Amino acid sequence: MCAKNYNAFETAQAQFDRVAEILDLDQATRDLLRNPLREYHFSIPVTMDDGSKKIFKGFRCLHNDSRGPGKGGIRFHPQETIDTVRALSMWMTWKCAVVDIPLGGGKGGVICDPHNLSPREQERLCRGWVRQVAQNVGPLQDVPAPDVMTNAQHMLWMLDEYEAIHRAKYPGFITGKPVGMGGSLGRTEATGYGVIFTVREALKEMGIRPEDTVASVQGFGNVSQYAIQLYTQLGGKVILVSSWDQNDQQAYAFKKNSGVDLKELQEITDSFGGINKDKAKELGYEVLPGDVWIEQEVDILIPAALENEVNAETVKRIHPRVKIIAEGANGPTTLEADKVIRERGIFLIPDFLANAGGVTCSYFEQVQCNMNYFWEKDEVLGKLDTKMTSAFIAVSDLARKKKLYMRDAAYVIAIDRVAQACKGRGWI
Ligand code: NAD
Q1: Is the N or C terminus of the chain more exposed, i.e. has fewer CB atoms within 10 Å?
Q2: How confident is residue 5, by pLDDT bands cut at 50, 70 and 90?
């Protein structure tokens, strides 16, 4: 998923190196934390519905487990690469550390396009993925979860395969399960809501009321839809969303100056977050090229699609009115673009803080599975708000005190916690 040849892993390592300097880390710590501790590359044979065999390439990386078992999603994507998975596993380590939950960083992926796979083929692929890594993942080792183009059903098939192999019940093996099957209420909302909890706090610090702001959002999947829901509830107005059109193989933006209507757009969106452009036109949306989301005259930009979308070319188009960029997606900003954002003084809420709501709720899911007692949705979302808000305040306080860019401040907190855990264990 390295759009325009940006390498997400190089970005992740360069971000780490910058903070390693600030923290003055010793060489062994740098060498340990710049790369995953372990990674698995494997082939997954799948019998297709027509009886033919197809071999898919799968990955799992465990970046660091000094603070607890690995944690991180599995993506199904035609342009998945090992470097993307490595980068994402590293960002998971920092994400768990910045919100201070006792988990490490992992990530997995399969090079495939689920749009072109029937449900039965997807099931066989999920089961095949688990068979390849069944000895290396688990509730006490490394815990997978849904990510781009994977969902609760995929997780349940994976759980079922894992339990069949290990001949016992392990509800804590995987998170993002359906509610009633070990899933937590609130997980679907968690990432998008988490993004907006941090936006709400940022606005509070700036003395701006949410109802006086407008936003433009890239993507219309799980993160984006719930971010839009909560932001709108707080009084904000989203004037544009964009999404990927599977038929045309390109992105489109959908604009309404009076504000997009979440429910009406959801009704014309497929299960992968693709908005039907003909129906959108009928509903009065202006349909524009996908990349215009970034040049809107808004207060808040929320990239919530894929990585590297805010890059050297697109960053120049950010409107002077923009005050906050809340990174819903993982790694949406390249190094060059990040420098520009920092220099322009835009308040950035970095990905591994802004979108940590998902993993925080996954952690709650594991806790509930361990107790075999499930909380009400309000309790889950209340605990999530508390965790996200305190993580945000810790980062912005440090940024202010030490005059650090928000991304650097978040990294300083996270990397320091992980480095201390590695030291404490005697690894370095
Ligand atoms: P999703 O698959 O539900 O949605 C992705 C959306 O992005 C879809 O609407 C798709 O049409 C759109 N999209 C894809 N390419 C696009 C492009 N070029 N331009 C515009 N839109 C495009 O995925 P999601 O779960 O919402 O995840 C989005 C991002 O957030 C990813 O980077 C993911 O890693 C990250 N993230 C997700 C979670 C979670 O809990 N779902 C947690 C943390 C981080």
Answers
A1: C
A2: low
